[in-house]
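<tokenise_the_fold>
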Amino acid sequence: MEIRPEDQARLVIDEKLIQAGWAIQDKKRMNLYAGTEGVYRVAIREMDTSTGPVDYMLFINGKACGVLEAKKDGISLGGVAEQSSRYSLSKSAFTQRWLDDLPFTYEASSLEIRFCDYRDPKARSRSIFHFHKPETLKNWLEEENTLRARMHHLPELNTDGLRDCQIAAITGIEESLKKNKPRALLQMDTGSGKTFTAVTQIYRLAKYAKAKRVLFLVDRGNLGRQAKKEFEQYDTPLDGRKFTSHYNVNMLGTTGVSDTTKVTISTIQRLYSQLSGTELDDDADERSGYEVESNSESKQPRTVNYNPEIPIETFDLIIIDECHRSIYNLWRQVIEYFDAFLIGLTATPTKKTIGFFNQSLVSEYTHEDAVIDKVNVGYDIYRIKTKKSEEGDLIEAGTAVQVRDRLTKKKRQEILDKDENYNKKQLDRSVIAPNQILTVLTAFKDNCLPDCFSGRTWVPKTLIFAKDDDHADRIVDKVREVFDEGNSFCKKVTYRVGKKAAEDTIAEFRTSPRLRVAVAVTVDMIATGTDIKPLECLIFMRDVRSQAYYEQMKGRGTRVIDVDSLHAVTPDAIAKTKFVLVDAVGVTETDKTESQSMEQKPSVSTEKLMEQIARGDRDAETLRSLGNRLIRLDLKLDDKQRAALSELMGKPLPLVAGELIHATNEEYLEQQAKVEFGTDAPTQEQRDQVYLPLANEAIKLFHNPDVRETIEDVRRNTDQIIDESADELIDAGFDEEKAQHIIQNFKQFINDNKAELTAIELIFSKPYQQRHLSYEQIEELAENIQAPPYNLASIEVWKAYQQLEAAKVKGVPSATLLTNIVSLISYATGLKDVLEPFPEVVERRFDNWLTQQQQTGVEFNAGQLEWLALIKEQIAQNAEMMIEDFDYAPFTQQGGVLKAKQLFGDKLDNVVNELNGYLIA
């Protein structure tokens, strides 16, 4: 007898209910307390209600909690929700109920299941992979509010320690969750703190929404280990304790997901192996999803079946870090297996990614935004082309060549019997050309480094992307050869050398001054999410098809680093203001990149760009390039230079740069034009009409010549132009006229500031006992001398006096010692007849002071004399000695302020004050 479609669907539904742990009974054979004691779980077929029989009524511990309507395949379940809702409100004679209105409704066919919990705010049905376990429904029934209800009562976000982009991201995610949107996508540029944002969000949901378990999906195993460290280091905002002191965080292992684990970290590959019950290859965790997808053997989407050990309700929330296309190509069913909110994190959202997340892009923080905020640095592109890499080559018949076995690497000699004409795609695949690698690396050393890192002797930290493991080996050998260095200079990083060895190499590359160049193969270990902040150069010797993968690879170079940390590994680097992308294969010339280099006019100087804008140039490339230059300039400035520029311009330099760059944003202009002109396809003329007012507003400051001149002056003080051509010595020293001009300027400065500058007033008018000159006063003096209109450096003034009055000038002091200004002022004002370095003045005055003390009957013992000498050195270097200075080196090494008081007793203050005045006279 042929089975009806409705009955066939019910057979499958029955099987799924049983898999989830339900006991299925006919109404006539009802036993609501059958099964395991503690959680009696029964689904009664054709249960009567006041509005007709429902296909299944669900009972837990003898009380009804929900209904299930079964339909044959092909029936739209969306329209069945009203029917199941009616049954949930209908009465059934003599039955006990968890709630008067049964909260849980299911609609199912053999292929599809939909579910709704009517206790949720604005409850609505959702598709699920399988039925929930009865234990889960019981736990939900015993909770005061549902998860979705609790999300509506999250407290205000504590923003301490969060960047604006992180605040916007968390706010966006929580708004999406409150609206019960099943998926949300978060765009944050590489390096802007995606993982920290995710940890903050997870903590809030665990603490305040009582989220039971969270899955944190990563692209590779080493990124999972990094993420675990971030959880372990996270200070929770309420009590300052670590996240892991409140909640358990574990990597997914062979034992599955523990009930006590709050956050499970896993790769998608390992999660699939757990769901499917298959073993995972040891190396599989270390392969990027990009690489797995590109493997011809792995391109079939993964299918999953229900696993009662990991039911669909295992996780309340799944955060997918670096969610690339393999998530919705290969692994989609693995992700959609769970009845959980999906939050995607990415630096590079593609249209397909946005589509997978239902176009719910809750926050955007682009590469441009990150560069403007100095969270990341921008980049320049340096192109290297060789004949073989661009065109391939011809090996003529009759040529003796080496032929190598791909697997064993064994070589043999052959004579070609016909011409071998190969193209660039065959290079390093079917044809190996060692000299092509040599040519590229030689061009990098001889051309790129002098052009992009002029004046540097240390090779910047450089990461090279290779095509395969063999290609990487050959690159490593050639790097060592070209730079004439040993094994420690360049190493290969790939999962094939083992997890620990690869991670040790990454750590060494991050921190060691010796290891300058790393070669990555499939970039599994180093491409996405691996922080190597000192990295200043990326060399692409392999092409990349994936737009998102390429963006992630570029992201390795964007990380900012403070100057001291950079100097620790690259001593002659001034500051990391950019990174250089060296393209040896044309990877930048195919249309796949999201973020663009903001440097559009590298051959035009900053001064010329500002002049062009002042003259009326509104070309987007000009504005964008100037904005990029200003961001890089700001990274080189100290706080005082930044403050001076901000005061002149009325706003911070990065804000000015950001306005220039944002005014040229093509996507923004497109959207504004659509709104303004009411069209889905605005013309270029319409976009220009939107652009021009924005551009005019952004460049207003550059009409002011003072702004242009000040920026150029500051830039000249931070940049060095190197002329490597030969030179010959004609003369040494200032010419007499220039020396006189410098001295006149200096004397004019003294006259102009005699009444205003505290430091000068002290020197001119006070007896020596009151001449306490502070280092801050000297520093203020130096800044005023260097500022317009004087533009003087103390060493220039000193050399000018030496040029004109050599007989009265004793030696040339250190150019960096600010206290020499005291000697210059004393000499220029006639207080002193001889110009000599301030430390020498202090030394002589100290000897005189000691003599005077002896003549008045004051004797110092050896310990006191030793400390007096230390005080003298402090004054020679800083023009002052304060009691607080005893708490710093070198005094602390001798016992600090307690030792000083022990030696000098209650006379300590008098001794220090007298030396402060006497020694600077």
